[in-house]
Amino acid sequence: MTTSIYAAGTTRILRQLRSDRRTVAMILLVPALLMVLLYFLYDEVPTAPGTPSLFDRIAITMLGILPFVVMFLITSIAMQRERSSGTLERLLTTPMSKLDLLAGYASAFSVAAIAQAVLACAVAFGLLGLTTAGSIVWVIVIAVLNAVLGVAIGLLCSAFARTEFQAVQFMPVVVVPQLFLCGLLVPRDQMPDWLHAISNVLPLSYAVEALQQISSNSTFTHTMAVDIVVVLGFTVVALCAAAATLRRRTP
């Protein structure tokens, strides 16, 4: 990587992103609006005395899942748009390396992810009354990490797509199985052994586990630390794999 090239690439993507108001609105507003929808969905569902409300149990997990899904979708489409327009091929004829390009995308969308996570958490905790035993700061940190993970996996999947439609098709293949197996629908320790084994190699499982730890523990736990390191590891591996598989020429 070259620092000046990487910085120029990041700036270029941020300028493009700023000029695309619909994409900015989707990144910033969709998770927050879905949290509001979730609140009204579970607002009148009765719970046993002394137990957290259903909204509290579900919403803390969704604060990590929604940024992951939104950033995966936007990143994979945005990168494919660069490829189909010929911009990607032109950029790679310059001294810019593949890692410069992908790191620039990751950094630019990470800035958007931070704003997204802060806004979604502000709505959930400030307006909707979400409560958790742990620190809100750690919720924001993990939400941002999940969004960056979505960016990294979106960049990786876009390398195997030839059209924007094909990029979207990766969502039911890559994202939906993780939603089913991350522990949101069924606790992972209650899954059949073979499904539990699959969930152990899916990054979203560790992100959800970390958020569940924050929900039930007032202190930073060893499990949370391991989960965060694993999510970071998946992110780095996905970015490196995306750089290795990125084609210099558009088919």
Describe this structure in words.
This protein is mostly helical. It contains ten helices and no strands. It is globular.
Number of helices: 10
Mean pLDDT: 84
State the shape. Answer: globular
What is the β-strand count? Answer: 0
SSE series:
HHHHHHHHHH
**Structural class by SSE content:** mainly alpha
Percent range for helical residues?
A: over 70%
- How many strands, what sense, and barrel or not for the largest sheet? none
Radius of gyration equals 19 Å
| Span between termini | 25 Å
Q: Report low-confidence residues grouped into runs of 5 or more.
A: none
* Content of β-strand: under 5%
Brief overview:
With 251 residues, the chain is mainly alpha-helical.
Produce the secondary structure layout.
Elements: H1 3-19, H2 21-42, H3 54-84, H4 87-91, H5 98-127, H6 136-158, H7 164-181, H8 193-199, H9 203-216, H10 222-245
Helix pairs in contact: 1-5, 2-3, 2-5, 3-5, 3-6, 3-7, 3-9, 5-6, 5-10, 6-9, 6-10, 9-10
What distinguishing features does this structure have?
76% helix; mainly alpha
